[in-house]
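Translate sequence into structure tokens.
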Amino acid sequence: MNQENRINILLVDDRPENLLALEAIIERDEYNLIKAYSGEEALKYLLKYDFAVILLDVQMPGMDGFSTAKIIKAREKTKNIPILFITANNLDSEHIFMGYSVGAIDYLLKPFDPLILKSKLERFVELYLLNKKIIEQSKSLEDKNKTIEYIAYHDGLTSLPNRRMFHDVMIQNLMNAKNKNETLGLMYLDLDRFKSVNDSLGHLMGDKLLQQVSKRLVNAVREYDFVARLGGDEFVIVLSNSNREECLEVAEEILSSFKDPFYIDNFEFYITTCIGLSIFPYDGEDSNTLMKNADAALYRAKEQGKNEYKVYHSGMNIESYRKFLMQNELRKAIELDQFSIVYQPRIDVETGEVVNAEALIRWNHPSWGVVRPDVFIPIAEESNLIFEIDKWVLKKVCEQMSRWSNIPYLSIKVSVNFSAQHFLQRDLIKQIKQILNVSKMNPSMLEIEITESALLQNEETVLQALQQIKDLNIQIALDDYGTGYSSIKYLREFPFDTVKIDKSYIQDTTNPEKNSRVIVDSIITLVKNLGIHVVAEGVETIEQLNVIRNLQCNEVQGYFYSRPLPPEDFVLYVEKLNMENRQSKTSKNIKSVDNVIILEPKEEIGINKTLIEISIQIIKRENSLSTREVDVFSLIVEGLSNKEISENLFISEHTVKNHITNILSKLNVSDRVQAIALVYETCINEKKIK
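Result follows.
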């Protein structure tokens, strides 16, 4: 047996023959018998070895057994070693009592029985081994407890402290800060676009990125700052004994550290983070308040863009509280009948008639008044209330259109906006079918509008849903085109009937410093060549309308014609506008053939060409028309098309369009019909004068 694994037994006697006798009786391979010839020598061995049992002679010269035992029991290291006294058989009871009082476990009287000695020794050795095993198990259990405690207080992926340890450290730091009258900073961090890494490259790559982010955060802060991972891509940093300026320096250092790329396998990542910061005691005096306020600051940083940090201020709590209240109120809005639908007309550029309308929701809150959709719709999407809201809108629109179906001039399509989340619903088509069946509405009169952001993720799922909607004979419109990726791929692969150009481009078409007009022209040409209907959103001025008309867009929508109207006002508007346009078309002086306005010679009622030319010259002087514009205007009055005017004047059709736009603008009319009518009014007035 290995010497290190043998059991040490100490034999103490001043007579060598007695030690040899003991050795002969108890010797075994697993025992390491160490012999001492005096109490002093025994004490030296006790400093060097760990013994299972001590066989100690009582009667020794110098330091006797009692004195030796007393010292052994006084030492911390040796006090628990069992002592077996060996003594002569004539020892009186007083001496025996003395032995027990100084720590003896048992006595063996000389001459002793070898079997009794071996038996007693083996029992002590068993007790020693059992005690040793208990100590080892206790140490192992202690190590395991330390491991369990480490796991309980640290993140398994990054080895950073976790949420539980953060709370303990935060409470301790707050107590210290209060006692020492110090400030303390709390940072709440969230990575930007981390979800896209998981979605595109998988969670394993995302985990590796989080590990590197954790190391970079630790290196970016000061040695005494505390960094913890709360979960996902969220981290917190406690900055003890730090004022606002010092915390801002750390925040800037963190953002600066993220400028360098992360290298993982064969990939190079550029990822940023946003930080929310709250300061004790100004922004809160307890852990929960500081955390809530840091979270509010982080939310504001996210709203402002990527790679930002924001310091908490009281106004953020007001916004958070208002958002909380709004979410609760939204849950009851349908039940309390607080929603309403308004309709904004879409106008056909050629005819000037209402041919379509967009249904828009309004929230009429009893205390807050009318809440804008851009305020409550994002909250509804975050809380999944958008499903019930959009379902309610579709149901109300279908019911309204069913009531309008018997009114001839209200035979128009209506568009309904759908949130991107809807297209991930399994029962979306089933819900639409059910609403159509109950309302008994013609599906061909319904159009579903979606934004480009709805297509960015889950393209296959969205495409499948759109195709099923098309199969129901419902039309599909792509809304706000130009604000997202403006991908031509979507126009090619998705079954769109209509594309709506975002108002930000339309409203800049009259600004010569921007290229919006060229962009809008290109979009209209491209989309129309693909056989898709084009709508210009946000038309608010006559100048914008003239540009859009000149670019031959199909429809316009905007405040120039009308704001969104309640159903009853919308009906009156459609009736008035459409009837006026139809009466204009059937005017006895003018008729339309193949979209070209021509004069009926037999109905000139004495107005000859000379009078028309005089009238045109009068209009020229009053409205400052140029010579070339008069040439174009004269041919318009004669009923020539743009192409025919181009051929007659030897100029391009594009130039003709520009001249016509300028003419209509100077005459303050919206189309050719009104321009020609202005000429005939002038003719009649001139004839009366004569």
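Note: The chain has four domains: 7-135, 163-314, 346-361+380-586, 609-686.
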